[in-house]
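In response to reviewer comment 3 from the previous cycle, which asked for concrete evidence that the modeling workflow produces usable outputs, we include below a single protein chain processed end to end. The sequence was submitted unchanged, and the resulting C-alpha cells are shown without manual editing.
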Amino acid sequence: MLGYSKIQIMGNLGSTPEMKYLPSGDPVVNFSVAVNRRYKDREGNQKEATDWYRICAFNGIGTACASHLAKGDAVFCEGRLQVRTYESKDGPQVSVEIIPSVVRFLGSGRGDAGHGGKGGGTPTEADGLDGVDPDSVPF
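The workflow returned the following C-alpha cells.
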C-alpha cells in the first residue's frame, strides 16, 4: 500500500530565498521558515518557542518564491516531507525538508506594501487565508 505525507506550516522567512540550478538546468530554491508557537509549561507559565523548517521548492514554485519573497515575509506552505541522508565531515547526517506543492504569500515583513505577494497574479500568491484575522496570528 502506498503511504501519504502532507504538512502545512505558516510562518515567516528566516532569510531571503537562495536559488540554485540542478544539472538539468531546473531551478531549485531553498529557504527556511520560522513558526512561532505558544504553550504553557507544567507550572502554568506562558512560554513561546520557534520551530524552524527547511523548504526546498522546485521549478515554477521555486522561481516565484525567489522573485517575491524576502527575509521576514509571512508565508503558508503545504507539501510533503522529504528525508535525505548524506555524508559530511562529521559523519552521516539526516536532513528533513518540506517539498511544497502550494506556497501562499501572506505579506511583507519589511513594511513596504509594494513587495511580497499582493496582487501579481501568480498562482502561488494569495492575499491571505479565508476566515483568518491577520491580527490574531502570533507573529
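Confidence is low (pLDDT under 50) at residues 113-130. We consider this sufficient to address the reviewer's concern, and the full set will be provided in the supplementary archive.
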